[in-house]
Specification:
This protein is an alpha/beta fold. The protein has helices at about 20-30, 50-55, 90-95, 110-120, 145-150, 160-165, 170-185, 205-215, 225-235; strands spanning about 5-10, 35-40, 65, 70-75, 95-100, 130, 155-160, 190. It has a single domain, classed as Metal-dependent hydrolases (TIM Barrel, Alpha-Beta Barrel), CATH 3.20.20. The structure holds zinc ion (2 copies).
Length: about 240
């Protein structure tokens, strides 16, 4: 079983299709001995996302809740083949953790070439830390080409437990992604994308895939909070 120290993709009631508060999420994270949590509510392109002020004002939260460090983050939407996001660079610059994902609400599923271009182009976005659930059935792409680019641009690759649970991602696809990340030594993060507090930190399906593919533990970045912390300081500045 893989143990992570920080679940870096979670949602709160700020997105109305999620059902727990940040306090509840942090309590559950603390119960599992986590050191940090990524609070990454949906960006403004999603119809029930919070107003941009939610993200502007994240600094109103204490640095730690229930002893768990709260990363001020966002799940931005990739909106076109140019890899544009639905969040301004100005706002992203104020945050500490940026997941960039494709969702069918904000990105009309195209052919493999369109999706590939979108992933290649989002790599140019300075503030993006993680490529969120790049295993979704709806968005096939040239995985090998993109994985190489993720590495070159130092984008972390997410293995997303919720996608596996809901079958939005097939285990075969996530397994293939892990095999490619292993071959090219690309760091991954295993996150839950929890929309309810009791799911925070539960990564059973992703752990199983890690075992099956013999994925190297040292490439799973969020097994050590310190490593993530260093990544953030290097990229987002002295925010601690
Ligand atoms: Zn959501
Ligand atoms: Zn998502």
């Amino acid at each position: 079983m893989i143990r992570i120290e920080a679940d870096l993709h979670t949602h709160t009631v700020a997105s109305t299709h999620a059902y727990s508060t940040i306090l509840e999420n942090c309590r559950c994270a603390a119960e599992q001995g986590h050191k940090a949590i990524g609070m990454t509510d949906h960006a403004m392109g999603m119809p029930d996302s919070p107003h941009s002020w939610h993200f502007e004002n994240l600094k109103a939260l204490p640095r730690k809740i229930c002893g768990v460090y709260v990363l001020r983050g966002i799940e931005a939407d990739i909106i076109d083949r140019e890899g544009e996001l639905d969040v301004s660079d100005g706002l992203l610059a104020k945050l500490e953790w940026v997941v960039a994902s494709m969702h069918s609400w904000t990105f009309s599923p195209g052919n493999e070439e369109k999706n590939t271009q979108a992933y290649l182009n989002v790599c140019e976005k300075k503030w993006v830390d993680v490529i969120g659930h790049p295993t979704t059935k709806k968005f096939p792409y040239d995985m090998e080409r993109c994985v190489k680019r993720f590495k070159e641009c130092e984008k972390l690759v997410e293995i997303n437990e919720s996608s596996l649970l809901t079958r939005k991602s097939l285990p075969e696809t996530a397994g293939e992604l892990l095999r490619l990340c292993k071959r090219y030594e690309v760091p991954v993060v295993i996150n839950t994308d929890a929309h309810f507090c009791e799911l925070v930190g539960r990564i059973d399906l992703a752990s199983q895939l890690v075992e099956e593919t013999g994925f190297p533990r040292e490439l799973i970045y969020n097994t050590e909070w310190e490593r993530i912390r260093e990544h953030i300081i290097k990229k987002h500045g002295e925010i601690f």
